[in-house]
Amino acid sequence: MAAAYAAWVRPVDYDERLYAVYAQGRALSPDNLRRWLAAFESWAPPPRPLQVLDLGCGVGRFTPGLADTFGGPVFGVEPSERMRAQAVQNAAHPAVSYLAGSAEAIPLPDRSCDLALLYFVLHHVADKKAAAAELARVLRRGGRLFVRTNFSDRMPELEWYRFCPRAREVDRSMYEPLSVVEDRFNAAGLLGIGLEELEFEEARDRRDLLGKLRLRALSTFEHLSDDEAEQGFAAMEADIAVHGNRGPLMAKATVLVLER
Q1: CATH assignment of 2-153+175-203+253-259, given 3.40.109.30, 1.10.10.10, 3.40.50.150, 3.30.460.10?
Q2: Which of 4, 14, 58, 225 has the largest count of CB atoms under 10 Å?
Q3: What interhelical angle do 178-187 and 128-138 show, nearest 10?
């Protein structure tokens, strides 16, 4: 699956367009942020403070919350210059530092972190084997890694896929089966210790979801034509007019938890 993905889906450059819409289109509600942080905390080692890596932190959606929860310091590592600039400007925290870097080249010393978060980043990583080795390098013995991603054999059924069916195909092609992901981390010395299943509110209602989708803050839209996207939005708008603006819309997520 990874080879098929690489053959036809170009890498996404967040400095081109997505940086300008990401914070609005992918904003976390306070309740959703609390849910995620509580889930991470339930798997974290007990001592505090903990040093944390937020790898592929983007605009810093989680980074300050990780500092509040675990004490820090927290290092938000992000390869996109414009995403990182937004994090510095809008998600500042006294215990947070934002650094240029990538999953394959993490700018932190060996055994320097107690926790690492990889939130919807893995499918963007070109050299996943190198990234697994880097995460194993920077985590201390007993440190935990949280990998929030989709798995091609456990794909969610999202509300909007009905109206933009090729998006489902595009998304599935980006991800690998759970066993492949876990085996790669195991080979690097990070052993899977559990799966966290979390339900969260994807949107207040269908119109709220459509508003977010129109921003095209999901990288999926980088692989769809403008016509495909607009046809999907129009179909969803028409369906809302006929069947109503029900909500809230809930979604399920899977987090793979690994230990160094």
Answers
A1: 3.40.50.150
A2: 58
A3: 50
